[in-house]
Amino acid sequence: MDKIMIDGLEIFANHGVFPEENKLGQKFVISAVLWTDTRPAGCSDDLNQSINYGEVSQRITEFVQKNTFQLIETVVERLAEELLLTYSELIKIQLKIEKPWAPVGLPLRTVGIEIVRGWHTAYVAFGSNMGDKEGYINASIEGLRQTKGCKVEAVSDFLVTEPYGGVEQDEFLNGVLRLRTLLSPQELLERLHELEQEAKRERIVRWGPRTLDLDILFYDDCVIDTEELHIPHIDLQNRDFVLRPMNQIAPYLRHPVLNQTISQLWENLCRQ
Known about the structure:
Blueprint: E1 2-13, H1 19-24, E2 26-36, H2 39-44, H3 53-66, H4 72-86, E3 92-99, E4 111-118, E5 120-128, H5 133-145, E6 150-155, E7 159-161, E8 172-181, H6 185-198, E9 213-219, E10 224-225, E11 230-231, H7 240-249, H8 262-271
Antiparallel strand pairs: 1-2, 2-3, 3-4, 5-8, 5-9, 6-8, 7-8, 10-11
């Protein structure tokens, strides 16, 4: 990716743990690296095809001056989110905030925080086999659309499928969606659990009936295996109700562990 760089922007603002810092203020120095595609602007010589670094510098200044936080960790985190949500061409941002007048009582040039934040692509499976199945699913999709830092980019058709796991129950309504998100995998999992709870999901019987089931299938090309989170989702290559809708919206997505595309996995399952 191409980069636009802003280096050493000096801002006088009111952030800090001590009351004097909030009241009297001090100098902060902010640097930013903006990952974007500069080729359209470079070929057209049109500023509208790029991110205006002057405008970004002004927005950074306004944000840092109009807000007051105790921690510079909070300043840089909120600022990164603000810029990523404001500029659609911005894919990823590296932000550094330095505090040269930090009240530590020792000789130092500066203290600071540096982070990298950006958009991620996740695929989420949804399913329901109790009550108003379509209503529960549509409500969860709308819930994701209304979640700050989440953009639903594609939704598969809803498929009627047989129950999985051997528990006798009603047919499922299943599908998958593609999500662009600023949330981390753990934060996304927590948000999905909130949406399940809003649908009064009860986890009583494994693979049993449920009002709403939301699972992260993929998150970029990450491989995560913790007690709470398994990405890519375990055994998805053997699940018709996952691969069919995935093949509809992302046939060429490659499984980061199995090294096969969704289309290939779907063909393999159909031959079994």
